[in-house]
Design goal:
Layout: E1 2-6, E2 12-13, E3 31-38, H1 48-62, E4 66-71, E5 76-77, H2 89-92, E6 96-97, E7 100-101, E8 104-108, E9 111-116, H3 128-131, E10 137-141, E11 144-155, H4 161-166, E12 178-183, H5 184-193, E13 197-203, H6 204-215, E14 222-227, E15 234-239, H7 244-258, H8 260-263, H9 283-291, H10 304-320, H11 324-327
Parallel strand pairs: 1-3, 2-5, 3-4, 11-12, 11-13
Antiparallel strand pairs: 1-15, 6-7, 8-15, 9-13, 9-14, 10-11
Length: 331
C-alpha cells in the first residue's frame, strides 16, 4: 500500500519489504493500489487529496488495469526501494530512518510573514523578520484605543512556524508581543481585522487567501516576506505493502509523483516542488519558492513528545536569540 502523510505524523515501522526485479519496461499490473492520505497542516488551496486523485487518474491511464484508491489510514511502513533521483537531497533527508528512505517527499509548503501596509508606519521598506518584535503599537479604533501584538502565528497539528521565525530573526522577543496560541485559521482571521496584530506568521495558504482578497478589492495592500532555509511543511508518500508485485507498482506511482510532469501541476494546489524546478514566475509565491531553494527540515518520524519540547525550545530561542539548541532537531 501507499501512504501519503504530513511531516511528524507518528507511525510504527516494522519489517523489511522484499525487493524484486519484477519491474521492467512494459510490465503490467492489474489490481488496486491503496493510498493512505494523512494531513496535519493546512495546504495551499483546494484539496491535496483531490490533487492526489487527479494524479492517480493520470497514472492509471499510463498503466492500464492498475487502479489507485485514496483513503485515510495509519500504515506499517517498509523501506522505499524506488527511484529517488527526482527529489532534492535536503527534502529527502526528512523521510529517512536509520539511513534508509521510508517516506518519499512529493510536495512542500513554506512559511511567510504578511503585514498590511497601513499598519507599517515607520517600518516601510524594512525587513519584517529583523524588526518583528518592535512592531506592536497602539491605535484608535472608533472611541477605543487597541494594542496590536507584533506578530501572531497559527499552529496546525505538529508544525513549527515559530522555528521558521527563530531561524530568520536576530531580534529577541518581548514576552507580551507574540500571540502564538492559535490555530492557523484563527491567526488569519485575527489578522484580517487589522486591529489585533501587525504581522501574520503564516504559510502559502495565507498568501493565497490574502492575495485573493486583494485582487477582489476586499483588502488593501499587503507586504509579504518569505522565511527561507527551513520548512517542516513537507508531504510524503510511503510504501506499506509486502506483496512484491504490488509493492513495485506502488513505488512506481510514488516515483511518478516526483517526476516533472506531476511536480509542474502542484500550482493547482499552490504547493511547491521537491525537485529543482521553479513553477511560479512572480509574486509572493515565487519569492517563497526561491527562499525554499535550500532547506533544513525535521525528520518525519520525530516523536510527538520531542516536537512538543521543540515548540517550547523555539519560544525560548525567540526570547534569548540563542539558536544552537534548535540545530539538533534539524536534518
Amino acid at each position: 500500500m501507499l501512504c501519503a502523510f504530513m511531516l511528524a505524523a507518528p507511525f510504527v515501522v516494522l519489517g523489511n519489504l522484499p525487493r524484486s526485479d519484477l519491474f521492467v519496461a512494459g510490465a503490467r499490473f492489474e489490481g488496486i493500489l491503496e493510498l493512505w492520505h494523512i494531513e496535519s497542516f493546512e495546504g495551499g488551496v483546494g484539496s491535496r487529496a483531490g490533487w492526489l486523485k487527479k494524479r492517480s487518474t493520470a497514472f492509471e491511464k499510463q498503466n492500464k488495469g492498475c487502479l489507485v484508491n485514496v483513503t485515510v489510514l495509519l500504515p506499517y511502513l517498509s523501506p522505499y526501494g524506488g527511484d529517488v533521483s527526482c527529489v532534492r537531497g535536503d527534502y529527502l533527508r526528512g523521510g529517512q530512518l536509520n539511513g534508509k528512505v521510508y517516506a518519499l517527499p512529493y510536495m512542500a509548503g513554506g512559511y511567510v510573514l504578511a503585514a498590511m501596509s497601513k499598519n507599517l508606519a515607520g517600518f516601510e521598506n524594512k525587513n519584517l523578520a529583523e524588526n518583528i518584535f518592535g512592531m506592536g503599537f497602539e491605535k484608535k479604533v472608533g472611541k477605543k484605543t487597541v494594542s496590536l501584538a507584533s506578530v501572531a502565528c497559527g499552529y496546525g497539528g505538529f508544525n513549527q512556524p515559530c522555528m521558521a521565525l527563530a531561524l530568520n530573526t536576530t531580534q529577541s522577543r518581548r514576552n507580551d508581543l507574540l500571540d502564538e496560541g492559535l490555530t492557523q485559521y484563527e491567526a488569519y482571521e485575527k489578522f484580517l481585522t487589522g486591529n489585533n496584530h501587525t504581522v501574520l506568521l503564516g504559510t502559502q495558504r495565507d498568501i493565497y487567501r490574502l492575495t485573493n482578497r486583494i485582487e477582489q478589492g476586499r483588502l488593501g495592500e499587503c507586504v509579504f516576506e518569505p522565511l527561507g532555509g527551513f520548512t517542516d511543511l513537507v508531504q510524503y508518500i510511503a510504501v506499506g505493502d509486502t506483496e512484491a508485485k504490488k509493492a513495485v507498482f506502488a513505488e512506481k506511482f510514488a516515483c511518478f509523483l516526483t517526476q516533472e510532469q506531476s511536480q509542474q501541476k502542484l500550482t493547482e494546489v499552490r504547493m511547491f516542488t521537491v525537485n529543482a524546478q521553479s513553477i511560479y514566475s512572480d509574486g509572493a509565491m515565487s519569492a517563497l519558492e526561491q527562499a525554499l531553494s535550500s532547506v533544513r527540515t525535521i525528520n518525519a518520524f520525530t516523536d510527538p513528545s520531542i516536537l512538543s519540547a521543540l515548540r517550547s525550545e523555539t519560544l525560548k530561542s525567540l526570547e534569548t536569540g540563542e539558536k544552537k539548541n534548535l540545530e539538533r532537531y534539524l536534518c
